[in-house]
Specification:
single chain; alpha/beta; Rossmann fold; 9-stranded mixed β-sheet; two-stranded antiparallel sheet; binds flavin-adenine dinucleotide
Length: about 260
């Protein structure tokens, strides 16, 4: 079995700066971490490997420094990392990101399962998993909290919904996105850290994949951030003092309703 885990590098801080010209996040020279949801995806893939044998490959699209998070993922148990990195991939929205990731998946070939995090902590759209599955033409299910059973042909899993849980059976190859309830990610062992240090992350540039240039990066992104700002919340607190607070509150609210 071959499992691909999509791993995104995200800022490890809330102090992110935006490029005033392109309105994209400035990712250079800031501390970066593995997207927290992707650590659950990594752990789940590694558990499948330990239980039934599998090759686990990490795939990321990002700046050259994202190689470090793939190396960290190797220290957490994945076997190999691929990084899609090229100026032509930069500035991608979710559509261009999933298209670019699909090129990496095609390069890796013959996969059975793709595991993504539920969402990224910076972009936060939760669109890339479903969009990647759509681009590859495979089945997908989001918000998985448990893999009940997996074999060479199928995966049976539990999806969290607003009302409870759904049990879903998917034919492989397929893609799932996982939520934090699925497991407790492990810490890297010294042995794995040593392996990670000596491992090669394979860099895939524009020339290594068969890409339609018009679908990449800013050029291939139909959505673009026009403006970013921190919303201003004007909250006027009114303190109700003294006795009979409930009556006073009711009359204030009734007055507001009548005026509106
Ligand atoms: C309207 C809009 C416009 C945007 N415009 C721009 C823009 O002009 N320029 C720009 O730089 N950014 C832009 N972004 C941000 C950019 O689209 C996202 O950072 C990127 O596409 C990933 O989406 P996300 O962060 O929402 O990931 P999500 O969809 O929330 O991520 C879900 C999962 O997909 C996988 N995943 C996501 N991204 C990657 C990755 N790069 N590598 C590997 N796995 C991944 C991970 O498993 C992750 O857990 C825009 C976002 C929006 C919503």
């Amino acid at each position: 079995m071959k499992i691909i885990v999509c791993i995104k590098q995200v800022p490890g801080t809330n102090e992110v700066k935006m490029d005033p010209v392109t309105n994209t996040i400035i990712r250079e020279n800031i501390e970066s971490i593995i997207n927290p949801f992707d650590t659950y995806a990594i752990e789940e893939a590694v558990r499948i490997k330990e239980n039934m044998g599998a090759e686990v490959i990490g795939l990321s699209m990002g700046i050259p420094a994202a190689e470090e998070i793939l190396r960290e993922a190797i220290s957490l148990g994945i076997d190999k990392g691929f990084l899609l990195s090229d100026r032509k991939f930069a500035g991608a929205d979710t559509l261009a990101t999933s298209y670019t990731l699909s090129l990496g998946v095609k390069k890796i070939k013959d996969f059975d399962l793709i595991i993504c995090g539920k969402q990224a902590s910076d972009g936060d759209t939760a669109q890339v998993g479903p969009s990647l599955a759509k681009t590859l033409g495979i089945a997908y299910v989001t918000d998985i909290s448990k893999i009940i059973e997996i074999n060479e042909n199928n995966i049976r899993c539990m999806k969290i919904t607003d009302d409870g849980y759904e049990e879903i059976l998917l034919t492989l190859p397929a893609l799932i996105t996982v939520v934090k309830e699925i497991n407790m990610p492990r810490l890297p062992s010294i042995k794995r850290m040593k392996i990670a240090q000596d491992s090669q992350v394979e860099i895939l540039t524009f020339n290594d994949v068969e890409a339609d240039e018009n679908r990449l990066g800013l050029k291939g992104s139909p959505t673009q951030v026009r403006k970013t700002f921190i919303p201003i919340h004007n909250i006027n607190n009114e303190m109700i003092e003294g006795s009979e607070k409930a009556e006073k509150l009711a009359s204030i609210l009734l007055g507001k309703i009548r005026r509106s």
